[in-house]
Structure formats: C-alpha cells, structure tokens
Design goal:
Elements (H helix, E strand, L loop, with lengths): L11 H12 L8 H15 L1 H18 L20 H7 L7 H9 L1 H6 L10 H10 L1 H18 L5
Helix pairs in contact: 2-3, 2-4, 2-5, 2-8
C-alpha cells in the first residue's frame, strides 16, 4: 500500500470532498491547529485578558514561527483587539467569516504559546488555558464537537 501525505492548508473545506473522493475515504484528518483556534474562542469569551496576552505573544513569535509555513498573512488586516469584547474576539476566529490573518498568526504560533515558560519556569499560558477549558468543559466540548462535525459533513461521513 502506498501512503501519501497531503497538507490541505487553510483551503481544507474546499479540498476535503476531493480528497475524500480520490482516496475513497482512506486518509488521516489532522486538525490540531484548528482545534487550538476553537479552544481560543472559549478562552476569549471567558478571559479576554489572557487571550490578548496570547495574541501579543503570538505577534512577537510570528516571524520566527511562520518560517515553516507558506502564508499570505497581512498583519494590517487584523483589527484593534483592544476595542473588542470576548464574543467579538471569538467570532474573529471563525473559519470563513472570521479574520484569516488573525487565525494564521495564532495558528502558526500555537506550539510556542503552549510551551512558553514564565520567568519562574512555569508554563506561561498553557495552565491558565487548560483551567478555563476545564471550568467551561461543556462549552469547550460543544465548540470542538461542532468543529469536527463540520469536517465530517464535508467528507460525506456524517449527515
């Protein structure tokens, strides 16, 4: 059996039906980065200050972390996040109607965010994010569930 690897990039929702048809549904679906963006919606709604901290850290890391990606990110297209509430911020993370430039900045830096350490050597963001997700577990699972359902519907694996 021949194994091929294909990275759909940010155009995955237009490519999924084609990939599904050509491979006869024999492929691996990886969504770690987009899962992270979905989880950040919950963080933005429940701890806007933490979300902004993550965003500004991500901006600092962006040029370094984007080196392994082919991106067309325009930082000028990201609105002033200091003027938005948590719901507005979360809506910017929606795939499609959201802000793709913001999504790209946060997506390519998620590894740096989750492994960042504070001056004391403790995780700078990860533990606080996990605590928010745990405290809002029902919403967290609902957001991730809807995200996965969207993928599966496009693959004709779910009605």
């Amino acid at each position: 059996m021949y194994n091929a690897y294909l990275h759909s990039g940010s155009d995955k929702f237009s490519l999924y039906p084609i990939i599904s048809r050509v491979t006869k549904n024999n492929f691996h679906l990886k969504t770690a980065g987009t899962h992270y963006l979905e989880e950040l919606k919950v963080v933005a709604k429940h701890d806007l200050d933490l979300f902004r901290e993550i965003y500004y850290f991500s901006l600092e890391q962006f040029q370094k972390d984007r080196a392994t990606y082919e991106l067309s990110t325009n930082l000028d297209n990201i609105p002033d996040l200091t003027k938005l509430n948590g719901e507005q911020m979360a809506s910017l993370l929606d795939s499609g109607p959201g802000n793709d430039d913001l999504r790209q900045v946060l997506h390519v830096t998620y590894g740096s965010v989750l492994t960042a350490k504070g001056h004391d050597g403790a995780p700078r963001f990860a533990d606080r994010c996990f605590a928010i997700l745990k405290k809002n577990e029902k919403e967290h699972f609902e957001v991730l569930g809807n995200h996965i359902k969207r993928h599966l519907k496009l693959l004709n694996l779910m009605e």
